[in-house]
Design a protein that fits this description.
With 227 residues, the protein is an alpha/beta fold. Helix content is 26%, strand content 30%. The chain has seven helices and 13 strands.
């Protein structure tokens, strides 16, 4: 009850104050949310941030978290979600890997390439593709490395091991600077369902929190429009 009372006072229309508890996924949080934290703290001296970072699914009630950043497709729930950005992926490989090899011209051609696969609980090893006309393909993939850590897969791809499917927020700079080369232009790809997003989720009883809204706004401003 004291916690709820404190939250009510923090949102009384005066300066923002109180504790804001945030849960972040490890890699995305480190790359794209952690850089926002110092500026947000300095601009809101009455707010204390309590940040936890984990790739495990967090129950907001059990963990007493005010907001969590989740990536992918949201399951139906009572949570409120704001989507600061889409979650896009790019199929790519290093120039050295592609040297002397015919790059895939269609999703089915991946059967001829070693693929670096992100593992998901209960998931199979297949990638989904959709072209500009809505045509869909689902292709089984296999290769020398499977991992639940996207940074490991990125390093392996840069190290010329094979073809990888990773988020643009992780490898966008590598593509821009030539360390990785995008493949299959015209095809959107995903290891899970299409139309995934990057979401800030919170409980309905936090809907009126000005400090929470201010933090999500800071993320949106940092990501840009378009992100």
């Amino acid at each position: 009850m004291l916690d709820e009372a404190d939250r009510g006072v923090a949102d009384d229309g005066g300066p923002l104050r109180g504790t804001l508890r945030i849960n972040l996924p490890l890699v995305f949080g480190r790359l794209h949310v952690v850089p926002v934290i110092p500026k947000f703290v300095l601009a809101n001296t009455g707010i204390e941030l309590e940040v936890s970072m984990s790739d495990s699914y967090v129950n907001l009630v059990e963990e007493c978290a005010d907001v969590a950043i989740r990536i992918g497709n949201l399951e139906s729930s009572s949570l409120i979600a704001r989507k600061p950005a889409d979650h896009r992926r790019v199929l790519c490989a290093s120039p050295a890997y592609l040297a002397g090899r015919a790059p895939p011209q269609a999703p089915e051609d991946l059967a001829e390439h070693p693929c670096l696969v992100q593992t998901f609980v209960g998931g199979d090893q297949a990638w989904n593709f959709r072209d500009d006309g809505g045509q869909r393909r689902r292709v089984a993939v296999h290769g020398p490395l499977r991992a639940n850590n996207t940074e490991m897969l990125r390093e392996a791809a840069i190290g010329d091991v094979g073809v990888v499917l990773l988020p643009t927020w992780l490898v966008g700079t590598d593509v821009q600077e030539g360390r990785l080369r995008p493949l299959l232009p015209g095809w959107e790809a995903s290891p899970t369902a299409m139309d995934a997003g990057i979401y800030a989720v919170y409980l309905p009883n936090r809907r009126g929190s000005r400090s929470l809204a201010s933090f999500i706004d800071a993320l949106q401003a940092h990501f840009g429009t378009p992100p």
